Amino acid sequence: MNLKDKVAIVTGGSSGIGGAIASRYAKEGANIVIAARSLDSLKAKKEELKELGAEVEAVQADVSKEEHVKRIKEKTLERFGKIDILVNAAGMTMVAPSEQLTLENWNKCMDVNSTGTFLMCREVGQEMIDTKRGGKIINITSIVAHAGIAKRAAYAASKGAVRQLTETLALEWGPYNINVNAISPGYVSTPIFQDLVRKGIHNPDLLEARIPLGRLAQVEDIAGPALFLASSESDYVTGVILKVDGGWLVNGHLNIH
Asked: Among residues 35, 99, 142, 232, which one has the fewest Cβ atoms lying within 10 Å of its Cβ?
């Protein structure tokens, strides 16, 4: 699944799932634009991707801000002249009993996860339509978009919105040869996940006991499906929400942390 000479934007691309996807794309020959809020992590990831042979542009940006999103697109076009692939991996979690969830935290979660994904899709989608090149858009949602998990009201609502946005855009943009799909990861061992473990919110042993494949996902487990959805192998795949959860959702026992 060669991505040679393709240009991919990966938001949240400096670490975690986005970082793994950016690395996988770089290994397959793509040129990469990574966007994230942390300048230090961007600098480190840029050097890593360059060592993999990619041409890389790093943009410090908050995808919940429209002017930042426009800057990501502009920087990409200035450097590479086109956009072939967009991966919306920027996101945040939010854990709180619903009756204690503040409006500020609700809005923060929705702004980053839902609005940020919409803005990136809108800007890049318009570019793909205008140039008549088509392209691939991959959104990162979550298993909480498919089933209720306690204390995740804001996170679930934001990721459910991404799921529905993906299907709607696939319908609208199919005639322009733009494939829009999403990946719904299960529990992935990312820095955010490990922070929740330290806070006592997640118990890895309990989680693994409910996963049919018997282990948490590593970020590379998500990068593989993201490569498929970015490649020509998925040219007839659109509007799909690909669950990459080790079988968590088919187990039926979701009401644990």
From this structure: 99
